[in-house]
Amino acid sequence: MLTLDEILEELSKQTGKSKEELMERIEAKQEELSGLVSLEGAAHLVARDLGIDLLKKSERTLQLKDIKTDMKRVNLKAKVIGVTPIREFAKKDGTQGKVRNLVISDGTGQARIPLWDKQTEIADEINIGDVLELKNVSTRQSTFGNMDIILYKTSIMRKIEEDLPVQPLSVNRISIKDATEGYFEIKGMIVDIFSVNPVFYLCPECKTKLEKDNYICNTHGKVEPEKNMIISGVIDDGTGTMRAVFFRDVAKDVSDLDEKTLESLELEEAIKLIKEHTIGKEFLFKGRIQKNKIFENLELVVNQAREIDILDEANKLIEELEEDGGKEEV
Ligand SMILES: [Zn+2]
Question: SS3 for 262?
Fold first, then answer.
């Protein structure tokens, strides 16, 4: 909801009338309605009389760090940092389907724009470095925990000449007790692992999740599934704890395990093995903190996990100190 000031600003900009003049009209409107509406309400009515759609104007262009999954009617500007090649697949009706992705960043966050079938042609005109303006798009979480931008018939995506200097994603360190949604780095330790099947199966064509042991996609029938790894657990940085999710390569990085090993084990054994390989290890985690839909608390979808070898770091520090110290003393 816009404040009275914001409405006056917008009306003045669009009509060229002074704020005083507009305010008089708003007060007159309120009086006309025997004071039954607020000044803001009256301002909206005056706007309507003037043929101005305030709701449309109140859409704001957001930065990726402020865009959450499952948002609708989002406007943003971002730079293309990646364009994937077209991947073709056979659809159930016998026609050929196509998909390719654009990866975008505005320096505050990253997202992927999947383009399907005819939409893929848009990408022929788009190069890395181009700045895109997106209007009226929606967002949702991808199978791997990242953010996807969804284009609808009413969405607008166009190249703009405006330059958008996009630095590599700046990721600030945050402690768990101060955590909010956005992209951050957390230095912490894995302290628990949830008992969730560490391997999940996707249709190689459309990436739909498949039931274990049947591998039947509703669109593509029986398929040889794509196997992916997921580990979820709890991290602790000394200020608090947070849920963390690791997909694919990140899951492999933190556990030194792979799908093949884990698939051959019963769930209980697999989780036991993952725990042995992860609990107590300290990492620098980078990723997106978001509100977990089911549990309503914050979770970190980890994009990168670098193990901190405390002894190694300490040795390096000692070496540096000795070198410096030595030079001065001699
Ligand atoms: Zn499929």
Answer: helix
